[in-house]
Amino acid sequence: STQSTWGSRRTMNIVTGSAGHLGEALMRTFRASGTPAVGIDIVPSPFTDHVGSIADRAFVFEMFSRYDDIAAVFHTATLHRPHVDSHSQQAFVDTNISGTLALLEASSELTSASCGGDSSVGCGAVLPRRRRCGVFVFSSTTSAFGSALTPSGPDEPATWITEETMAIPRNIYGTSKLAAESLCELFARRDKLPVVVLRLSRFFPGRGF
């Protein structure tokens, strides 16, 4: 569960890309269950609480600072495969790589916890410092596999994909998402930030495509 307590305070969940299909679905689910969650997107929507770009590091850190305890960050904001024809390669780097880096840095920031009025620990108790975010869930893509999805022979209708399959991205979209996955691995290994990477398939219809 992503709803928990730290002291006497409920935690918050953050959803990036809250105006998109996946982000909106997550926000709908959280709201229906009464789980505290806020949405971030560059596009205003009924499910977007903070309008801004994840590529804007100052915006990301200011937004994170509003919450004392973040249970999870669900990072679904991205430039998608159809954007390859309309956006520059630098735009993919800014959003998919630099934006993910800013979110990871904000999520892994150490914060000082307080007792929050919890009488069990006593007034003035010194609690251990912890990462601002409990878990970082990154929405990646099967496009990261790229050419590895090509069948090995003319008589093969498909190819088997396993955890051992080497990713060979075909375009800047797959390359940028693979680079973002590597950043997630770095923060998990170096900073001990709990990270989950999900390589998802397509969502139809994509808004704005």
The biggest sheet amounts to: 6 strands, parallel
| Strand neighbour order, sheet with most strands | 5-4-3-6-9-10
CA-atom Rg in angstroms: 19 Å
Q: What are the segments in which pLDDT stays under 50 over at least 5 consecutive residues? A: 1-9, 115-121
**SSE run:** EEEHEEHEHEEEHE
Q: State the secondary-structure class.
A: alpha/beta
Strand content: 15-25%
How many strands appear in the DSSP assignment?
Answer: 10
Count, helices? 4
**Helicity level, as a percent range?**
25-40%
Mean pLDDT: 82
Specify the overall morphology: globular
- CA-to-CA gap between the ends? 34 Å
If you had to describe this structure to a student in words, what would you say it looks like?
The protein has 209 residues and is α/β, with parallel strands linked by helices. Helices cover 29% and strands 20% of the residues. The chain contains 4 helices and 10 strands; from the N terminus they run E-E-E-H-E-E-H-E-H-E-E-E-H-E. It has helices at residues 21-33, 57-64, 89-108, 172-191, and strands spanning 5-6, 9-10, 12-16, 37-41, 50-51, 70-75, 110-111, 130-131, 133-141, 195-200. The strands form 3 sheets. The protein has a 6-stranded parallel sheet, sandwiched between helices. A two-stranded antiparallel ribbon has the order 1-2. It has a two-stranded antiparallel sheet with strand order 7-8. Helix 4 links the parallel strand 9 (133-141) and strand 10. The longest helix has 20 residues, at 89-108. It is globular and about 55 Å long. The model is unreliable at 1-9 and 115-121 (pLDDT under 50).
